[in-house]
Amino acid sequence: MSRATAHVDLGAISHNIQALGALAPRSQFMLAVKSNAYGHGLHEVVRTGLDAGVSSFGVLESTAGIELRKAGVDVPLFAWMHGQDTDFAAAAEERIDLGVQTFWQLEAIAASGARVVPRVHLKIDTGLHRGGADQPRWAEFVTEALRLQALGRLEVVAAWSHLSDTSHSADLESTALFGAAVEEAKALGAEFELLHLGASAAVIDLPEAHFDLVRVGIAAYGISPFGDRSAADLGLRPAMRLSAPVLDARHGLASIAVGYGDGIQSDPDAGAYVIIDGFVAPVIEVGVDETVVALPESAGQVGADSVCIVFGDGAHGEATAEQWAVWGETVGDEIVTGLTGRVRRDFSGA
Ligand SMILES: *Cc1c(COP(=O)(O)O)cnc(C)c1O
């Protein structure tokens, strides 16, 4: 039986990369492809990114980077989330740059026995408190990294951090802290090939945070990083449309073959709707496997060949993932990334 399908328009991703790249013209463009490219399909998105001229990819875990190397991807890759079981030697030997957030990671990388010298990017916590060396221990962290570098155990190539995006002023303050931390590290003898800080929001709104490289995720998929401006406002195109077949329609109700088991919001606000054959159909109840919607009186013959659009770019009157995020009181990232493996992906616009 056919179920929900996520249609990914790779042309939209390509368009968004060009548009965002133009906003940070002096910075390298790293495309963040964590979580299966935010649910859009890792390998297809990486190929699109390469064609669109991105300079590198951010993969979160080194295992995803190793998977890309095995698929023949040759550009720089950056992984920054590591566990006690991370194979740092394998990552270094596949030339994956490693974000380092803690002393134990620094020591484990230095002791990995890799046959090539691991390249590390030192992370300073500039206020997000989601990893990185705390400011009071930053000098000690840098000093230890330089000691290990002198022993030939690793090479320090970059300093980086991540912004909280809670407000423009908070991000600006973090940017200043980052700049100060870099100066402090340089005074200790560090030399950085690259400095990187900004993600989607900073690419659009905070040129001060562009530095040598920007790490861009959500905006490249056509979802606004801001609550008060939509992708359309920003000239970005939503890349994913979610459709589902109609299972049954009678007595003014229809059930469609998508539910929270596919990753859609289980309890959206009262205003939530889908589009069936061009008509707005309010959501009545989301179940694990099916969703019940109300059919307007004006709807024609709704049946097994009817198409239901849950979200997309709005071209057919449907809501966007951003709108679903409002209905679900979450962020657009969760709407697209949360789709489960049960949702089939198909691709166009390559
Ligand atoms: C997810 C992530 C990004 C991309 O952020 P967006 O807001 O999606 O552009 C960049 N850097 C790091 C460290 C991340 O975890």
TrEMBL record:
GO terms for molecular function: alanine racemase activity; pyridoxal phosphate binding. Its EC number is 5.1.1.1. Residues 239-348 form the Alanine racemase C-terminal domain. It holds the Pfam family Ala_racemase_C. GO terms for biological process: D-alanine biosynthetic process; peptidoglycan biosynthetic process. GO terms for cellular component: cytosol. The modification N6-(pyridoxal phosphate)lysine is found at K34. Its cofactor is pyridoxal 5'-phosphate. InterPro entries: Ala_racemase, Ala_racemase/Decarboxylase_C, Ala_racemase_C, Ala_racemase_N, Ala_racemase_pyridoxalP-BS, PLP-binding_barrel. Keywords: Isomerase, Pyridoxal phosphate. This is Alanine racemase. It comes from Pseudoclavibacter helvolus.
